[in-house]
Amino acid sequence: MSTGFERDPDEFSRGARALVVYPDMGASSRDAEARLEETAGLAAAIGVDVREKVAVKLRQPKPGTLIGSGQVDALAETVRDEELQLAVFDAALTPVQQRNLETALGCKVIDRTGLILEIFGERARTREGQLQVELAHLSYQRSRLVRSWTHLERQRGGAGFLGGPGETQIELDRRQIDDRIIQIKRQLDDVRRTRSLHRDARARVPYPVVALVGYTNAGKSTLFNRLTRATVLAKDMLFATLDPTMRSIEAGQGRRIILSDTVGFISDLPTHLVAAFRATLEEVQAADLILHVRDIAHPDTEAQREDVEGVLRDLDIDIDSDGRVIEVLNKADLLPEAERETLSTAVRRRGHDAAVISALTGEGCDGLLDLITRRINADRETLTVKLDIADGRTLAWLHRHGEVLESRDDGAHLFVRVRLHPNDAARLHRQLGIATRH
Questions:
Q1: Which tens digit of pLDDT belongs to each residue from 22-57?
Q2: Does the domain formed by 17-119 have CATH 3.40.50.11060?
Q3: How many beta carbons lie within 10 A of that of residue 396, not counting itself?
């Protein structure tokens, strides 16, 4: 399905031999080796053949090339010797830096943002996902010298009526990019309205929404599949999931919930990419409960936790003050036995805000479902409502807005034991004038 975005014929392709470069400015919470491994994993996720990984110490960024001239010369020698076709910089490059590095290295150069966009562009399957990726890609490309948009000249038909006298190719390209951005934003506004309607419909059917969030490759989709018996793509691969997926499941005690799998987060996620995926991330904002899935066996698990919490704060979800978050410590099967026991003991002492699991083996997943049920039910009131036996309308309202636990009648009245959200319980008291007791 085409969204209007076309790849530059000069773009790298699967199997391209690549060099990964991390300009180490000492600002990251991860060490250089961890950053190189992650970026190499990102490149491998779209089929790039990473041949070399180099960390470059950097005291002061150079305006023209980011790194020093001697470092550029050393990288150019590596590119020549290894016959490399691509250099991936784990940093944000300006258009000038990218162009100058391509000239100096003699190969294609992309930065971290460009690499993530390539992955997203390849993984998007739904119309919504493709629109969001294209919006992010256009926003990124607009700030650059638009070499990769020469195909827009062909699309105009050659009449030239869009441009005024003396208007440059870059200005024409940017105008067309701006027009397409406006068009996509309108379409995504329709998506948001549709999602809002779906949320309103779910609110009428009292199924709480539980959203899975976490660093990319933390095991969200594996957990989603384990809990829902679905077949969402789950691989040991960064950004295996892009398009959000929802399923209704039974969490325990007869309690049904809607589980939502979302795109993975990553360090230095471009802000315009977060903005483009706002329609998807709104599902997280509106969720009744948020499961923060962590790869507890990853050497950088704490840094990953900080990155995810940073994105959640950008969504106005503060881990410290928002009571909706459960920390799910996944991949416990990869830990040594003694470490697993220590972790499990620590989590038990924490109470109701964490769980230790292995989504792959199923260890701890039943306990997680019980925890979800307890957390969801904790903010609901259990009432016994006395109705006239012929009051089918109110009975239907109770089934629609609450969880009916049992009902009995004495011939004249119906006594319904129901679990309701406090707002619905108050509405029952205030608007319907129904007699209730706990």
A1: 999 877 667 889 889 999 998 998 889 999 999 999
A2: yes
A3: 10
pLDDT over 70, % of the chain: 80
Q: What is the pLDDT of residues 378-417, one digit of tens each?
A: 777 888 888 888 888 888 888 877 778 889 988 888 999 8
Out of 3.20.20.70, 2.60.40.10, 3.40.50.720, 3.30.70.240, which CATH number does the structure's domain 381-437 have? 3.30.70.240
User: In this structure, are residues 210 and 291 in contact, taking their beta carbons and an 8 Å threshold?
Assistant: yes
**C-alpha–C-alpha distance, residues 358 and 295, integer Å:** 10
DSSP assignment string, 146-195? -GGGTHHHHHTTT--TTS-TT--HHHHHHHHHHHHHHHHHHHHHHHHHHH
Q: How far apart are CA 192 and CA 55, in angstroms?
A: 42
| Backbone angle region of 149, left / alpha / beta, with phi > 0 → left and psi within -120 to 50 → alpha | alpha
Distance between first and last Cα of the chain: 55
CB atoms within 10 A of CB 87: 26
d(CA 412, CA 391): 11
Fold of 206-378: Rossmann fold (3.40.50)
Residue pair 355/296 in contact by the 8 Å Cβ criterion:
no
